[in-house]
Design a protein that fits this description.
The chain is 37% helix and 20% strand. By secondary structure, it is an alpha/beta fold. It folds into two domains: 30 residues; 138 residues, 3-Layer(aba) Sandwich (Glutaredoxin), CATH 3.40.30.10. A hairpin with a 5-residue loop joins β1 and β2.
């Protein structure tokens, strides 16, 4: 009888504490989505569809919006009109908007970009190295980097962002 109670008690304790373990792990992961911290963004250099290099470090002094995505991702495709609207509204204000396609060939991404008339710069992360450095665990993932090169916020969808507040507070 004592063993049954101890087993039940142990099971209840383990079940009750199980959500604590992942939360503790998330606190040590600096770029997990939904964690708004001002930690330095990992620097990277990638080529865009035209073969030109983009280096995050060279964007210091500018606000940067990075979107990680893939051609096969339905949410990434459904967000394209939002990305276009952000690009049209905020790039004239000096915001750098870049889309990073993860682990797909240049040809596939170029076809996708043409088919969807993407106006923004599309970078190719063929080996997923940059996505991994940002701890991308799902796409789309949006990262806002401030003028000092620090991550301000990470989210999955545009509707989760208060862009006017984010961009106006960084422009001071």
């Amino acid at each position: 009888m004592k063993k049954i109670y101890l087993t039940k008690f142990a099971a209840i304790i383990i079940f009750a504490l199980s959500p604590v373990w992942p939360c503790a792990a998330l606190e040590r992961a600096p770029f997990i989505p939904y964690k708004s911290v001002r930690t330095p963004a990992p620097d990277f250099t990638l080529k865009d569809l035209q073969g030109r290099q983009f280096q995050l470090k060279s964007q210091r002094g500018k606000q940067v919006m990075i979107v990680f995505g893939a051609t096969w991702c339905p949410y990434c495709r459904s967000e394209i009109p939002n990305y276009k609207a952000i690009y049209e509204k905020y790039t004239p204000q000096g915001i750098v908007f870049t889309y990073i396609n993860i682990m797909e060939s240049r040809d596939k991404v170029a076809g996708f970009s043409r088919a969807n008339s993407l106006p923004y710069r599309t970078l190719i992360d063929e080996d997923g190295r940059v996505a991994q450095s940002f701890n991308v665990v799902g796409v789309p993932m949006i990262v806002i980097v401030d003028k000092e090169g620090r991550i301000v916020v990470t989210k999955n969808l545009v509707r989760q962002l208060d862009l006017p507040k984010l961009f106006s507070s960084q422009s001071r």
